Amino acid sequence: MHKMNRLKSFFSIFWVMLAFFVFSGNANAVVGTYAGDCAVCHGPSGAGTVIAPKAITGGSASKIKSAIVGGVPMMAGLVGLSDTQLNAIAAEIGGAANLSVAPLPVVCTSPAVRDAATNTCKTPACPTGQVRNASGVCAVVPVSCTAPQVRDAASNTCVTPACPTGQVRNASGVCAVVPVSCAAPQVRDAASNTCVTPACPTGQVRNASGVCAVVPVSCAAPQVRDAASNTCVTPACPTGQVRNASGVCAVVPVSCTAPQVRDAVSNTCVTPAVVPVSCTAPKVRDAATNTCVTPAVVPVSCTAPKVRDVATNTCVTPAVVPVSCTAPKVRDAATNTCVTPVVEPVSCTEPEVLDAATNTCVTPVVEPVSCIEPEVLDAATNTCVTPVVEPVSCTEPEVLNVATNACVIPACSVGETMNAEGVCEVIPSVACVLPKMLINGACALTTTSCDDAFKKFEHEQHEAYERAEHGDKAKLVIAVPTTQAIHAEQVLNLGMVVYGDERKIAMGVNLPKGARFTESYNGDLQLHQGMLGWKVPKSASGKTIKIKLCAEAHNEGGYSKKDMKFVFKTVLVKVLPELKSTLVTEPVIGRNVISSAVYNTAMQRLEVSGQVKLSAQKVNAVRKKSGAQLIQLSNAHNAALLGAVKAKADGKWFVAIPLSSALMPRVIDATFNGKVVTVMVKKLP
After folding, report:
1. Average pLDDT of span 533-546
2. Is 398 a residue whose pLDDT tops 90?
3. What is the average pLDDT across 155-167?
4. How many domains does the chain have?
5. What would the mean pLDDT of 552-557 be, rounded to a whole number?
6. What are 270-282's pLDDT values in tens digits?
7. Do residues 447 and 524 both lie within one domain?
8. Average pLDDT, integer, range 426-442
9. Are 89 and 34 in contact (CB under 8 A)?
10. Residues 556 and 597 in one domain
């Protein structure tokens, strides 16, 4: 029963180790039958691991099959491997592929048939006089005929086909239509072999005799038709006449000098008998012209706005129609024009400004900024502000946290701890278990915790350490990835698992400055787990940082000092340059959060969503500029870039990244404008 429990623990530890290495980002793809089915236990090179011994170099396929079928219980899970696969594994490790694999009968496609002797497909020969066509079917060899003869498929002979109706075969053996004979004015249409009447030239029509003739033009008077050209022309007028505006020939009228006038009847100039005109003062009659004229008068000179009245030669004030003006312009009575009155501009108080058109103070229209809760818009300043909250009332020993407006229990002083009643009490002197040490009244890790613990252990139990570190009977094991890569200013999450000893195990690390370390124990799987979280500083950029992790199995429960165990491992962390922001330099980012990070196994993709929350800014354009930047997603363990996404106007974002399950990260970073947030990825079926 005890052995069965230890075997179950072993299998549990085996699967935990596999999960832990995948969690730590060590997911190198493997290729080949040995690498896919054997390397996980025997190691990639076959040198063996803590799980399984060294693989048998040169082992034959039959030996491997015997081990799977009945030799080794842990290999029973490979019973589904075929003899072909086992031969391939044996070949990879230098062994004999000695399992017989009978060849399968080949499947042939018609017209080929299977040759049982050679297990191959062969095409049988066609009967005499036949050949295989493009479809693979045997057919008679068709005869070759010379035109106009064609091949008769039924008899496979050459025959001369009959000509179509209305055609005869000429001397060349070609079928041709018998040409029709046409009577004028019709002509033969070679295309249709029919008689057709051709169309007349432009401007002609066919008369009753069937002859094309010009259509006579119809002319309007005074024009007449010219038979030669079939056009309308205007004939010349008789001598002494010209054609007037109506187109009629008329005598040319004589030109008379006043006072003579033309006599229309005789077309001559005559002096008419004159009746003296009667004139009204001040006009008088001009005898020479028998017309009324105004005698010459010296015009008076007038001063504006008066003008001279020609009729009376006097100065008068003209009647003026007042102009109509549109506000703010008014009429100037002196000039009867519209003028803009001089107005003293009003003085405005901010945020109002002067409207020059109306000389009034107005509040300018401002585009309201978009605020993210808990901030609200201050309409007076058009900025996002945190609303004033009425402080809560707290009961001792709680006090008010002004930042969160919540009641909290204040932290105790160094060297004190809080009891069940919330009262701080002095911490009694404690004895810390290595690698932790007593610092300010509490047990904690330092930058040299593992080094200090190792020195003390080596001093007290040097031989026991030699056996634990190098001996074949050592059981205490640290499982942790030995290399990592991360950008400066990102958070490193480094996990470790310790197993192999049922005693109490203490874990520790040479804690980098600013780092934190948490540890826990999984009772179901009987192993210890630890997680190091460290925001890598800019000063470490371009360097390789060594982080030492250690574990000690403490001497208790009847074990002697010589049975104490102490092991350590060193992780090399390569620090890459900081990821720089290229779009926004203003410090407008309040918080960057990841709402969800899951791996969809069915869809083979990583689905991540979150929100960028912006700080209050006075200039709305700056907030919009920051909102246009990309959120970069990367693997937290090796800093490999996974993808990028742009946040929407409200700061929310979502992205689905196609990714095979072998490359699924366990922890991811989301970086936005220099701010990094880290979260573990959940795996969905």
Report:
1. 91
2. no
3. 85
4. 3
5. 67
6. 887 777 888 888 7
7. yes
8. 70
9. yes
10. no
CA 564 centroid distance within chain: 59
Two tokens, residue 266: 């005789």
C-alpha span between 367 and 372 (Å, rounded): 16
Angle CA(231)–CA(235)–CA(241) in degrees, nearest 5? 160
Which of 41, 64, 92 marks a domain boundary? 92
The pLDDT tens digits of the residues spanning 305-321 come to: 788 887 788 888 877 77
Residue 507, burial from CB neighbour count under 10 angstroms (0-12, 13-18, 19+): buried
- Is 600 found in the same domain as 517? no
Find the radius of gyration of the CA atoms of the chain. 57
Measured distance CA(674)–CA(577) in Å, rounded: 12
Q: Does residue 61 lie in a domain region?
A: yes
- Asked if 486 contacts 636 with a C-beta cutoff of 8 angstroms, the reply is yes
149 assigned to some structural domain: no
Prior bond of 238 cis (ω within 30°): no
pLDDT for the residue numbered 476: 79
Q: Cα angle vertex 664, ends 485, 487, to 5°? A: 20
Residue with tokens 């997603």: 633
CB distance 90 to 57 below 8 Å: no
- Closest CA relative to residue 534, chosen from 643, 593, 612, 447: 447
Cα→Cα distances 202→214, 249, 270, Å: 9, 36, 59
Least confident stretch, 2-16, 163-177, 474-488: 2-16
Using a cut of 0.90, tell me whether the model's pTM lies above it: no
Tokens of 496: 């470790």
Flag whether 546 is in a domain: yes
pLDDT at 377: 78
**Do 515 and 474 lie in a common domain?**
yes
User: CA 7 to CA 482: how far, in whole Å?
Assistant: 28
Same domain, 523 and 651: no
Answer for the pair 12, 493: CB distance below 8 angstroms, yes or no: no
Residues 626, 524, single domain; the answer is no
- Give the distance from CA 135 to its chain's centroid: 50
Mean pLDDT estimate for the chain: 77
Q: Which among 121, 105, 101, 102 is positioned nearest to 113, based on CA atoms?
A: 121
Q: Determine the pLDDT at residue 469.
A: 41
Burial profile 427-461: b = 16 or more Cβ within 10 angstroms, e = fewer: eeeeeeebbbbeeebeeebbeebbebbbeebeeeb
Q: What range does the domain containing 484 cover?
A: 431-576
Supply 149's token pair: 């003869």
Residue 231 CB partners (closer than 8 Å, separation 6+): 217, 225
Residue 593 and residue 537 share a domain: no
Q: Summarize pLDDT for 629-673 with one digit per residue, the tens.
A: 688 888 877 777 888 888 887 788 899 998 888 888 888 888 887
Among the candidates 74, 92, 110, a domain finishes at 92
Query: Would you say 145 and 151 are in contact if contact means Cβ atoms under 8 Å apart?
Result: yes
Does residue 250 sit within a domain? no
Residues 639 and 542 placed together within one structural domain of the fold: no
Shortest CA distance to 675 belongs to which of 535, 539, 532, 515?
Answer: 535
Read off the CATH number of the domain in which 632 is found: 2.60.40.10
